[in-house]
Amino acid sequence: MSSVDFTWLIGGPQGSGVESGANIFSRVCAEMGYQVFGKREFYSNIKGEHSYFAVRISDEKIHSNINDVTLMASFDAETIFRHYDEVVSGGGIIYDADLDDVTTDKVHTLDAPFKERLHKKLESKNKPFSIAGVLEIAKENGVLLYPVSFKSILETLAEETENPRLKGLIRMFNVIGVSLSLGLVNMPPDSLQKTVGLVFSKKEEIAKINQQAANYSYNYATAKFENFNHTLTGIQKEPGTLLVQGFQGTALGKMACGCRMQPYYPITPASDESVFLESNEILEIIDARPGSTAVIQTEDEICAMGMTIGSALTGTRSATCTSGPGFALMAEMLGWAGINEVPVVITNYQRSGPSTGLPTRHGQDDLLFSVYAGHGDFPKIVYASGDVEESFYDTGNVFNYADVFQVPVIHLMDKFIASSVVTCKRFDTSKISINRGKLLDKVESGYQRFAFTDDGVSPRSRLGMDNGIFWDTGDESDETGHITEDPVLRAKMMDKRMSRLDLILKEIPDTEKVVSFGVEDYTIISWGSAKGPILDAIKMLKKEGISIGFIQLKLLHPFPSEYVSSLLKDAKTIIDVEANHSAQLSKLFKQNVERDVDYFILKYTGRAMTSTEVYDSLKRIVENKADKREVLMHGA
Hints:
Its EC number is 1.2.7.3. By secondary structure, the protein is α/β, with parallel strands linked by helices.
């Protein structure tokens, strides 16, 4: 283990400022040089239900959360009931002392199945069905308890600052919890004050009172709390790093690669990307000229897809952003883009399905749907990023793929990535290249939009270009775009379009198709955000002398069969790790590589994977103690 591997958890009702508190904690830790990986989980309603944020920090590179919590800060009863047993021996719980007598029947947001499980555990330990009961269990497990009245802190602060309004500002409980936590671990206070000021910088008075609360709470913890063995005093900060939230990777990538049109319809978790683009729609481009991205909220996803296609026909780099249910509505228009060879990018932030499913929860549920979306045969690319840093550079690549091959590209992201906050290397825009393919600047005469060419890709005119007139229709067409049902021409057009799948496999470099982290007797195949937990689990096992290989698939359609087969030729045991019920990657793998997967590690509870879970399952597989199908269940 590294010398610092610390997980902090804060929880509370949605709308109580939990995310703001986690933002402050993450920023302070990043400012003090630590690597950060934070992940938010929340229930599928607008306000009131449980929300929590686990922030893991380390002095080494980390890619995921773990099961264990080192320190929990809670100002509500539900967080304690749901997470008390995640805190490790030697860890701590800072909690509102006014909650001691709260019983489970007073917390109406505790769902019946969870409450039944909790009651059974409390009964088995002969404990009351209350906060005091679960905290007694935690204490018996070696957890240190730090009770403090959050209300009293506000009252004292109100008196000291002669600001009686502070007494009722319970939304400041989040800042109190963060500051108590940072005081307990001896984090230098200057960074806390600076960060609180930055977070609330748009409202000077709010920033001031939050800084006062932070200062008082920090000093309270350093004076009153003791016997905690964990300290976070800071390390040398690595230059060229930034703290970024998941959806910002693709948004910044779109800015850098020249995407200038994004219609969308709001849907969780994809909306954050479009909102971020809209908030930064005016940007500087080459030679300090101003540029902008038009971000338009449409009446539905069908319209969003139609507008994306329409703007792409003008030669504008265009994308839309959605999640599974929204992507389902785009399927017909996707086929229209396919038959008319329109380059568009659809960023799909997957979540748990089917139907509305778990709308604020994680899932890698849309792989097969993306591969087979749209009726009939037409070429498309399905591409998956594994983390925030990859998503920035991959976004540049997928726009190039769309332009060069004149196909729709579905860029698979997911809730795990969207809701993660991580430290990573500052994005290098010089590594983003722009290739518009056969997009024409001028047309002489006799233009044929769908002309037959040696590589199957036709020169592309823009709407309104002199001599570049063309027709688009959802029907089959001839080379100019006029409708035809001639059987010979139909076959030639189908062959022309579909030949691009072979061209894609030939032209995209192997390093952009698959990332190999080494092949061993036991080797994992996976895709998307499972990458992070896998890498951390492999690292844990390596310290025990156990070597596990890992092949991360990024180009999922067309499937790079020959290259994947060559990479895995010496692997004896194949393990599929992904976040869906049916092991969707394994089906593509079997179909294209003609080889069976030996073990499955799957998670479909809607909660993100942790490296602890993956590590445990991999170790059981190596020790021949695992089921063929290992199902991961950690998470509240």
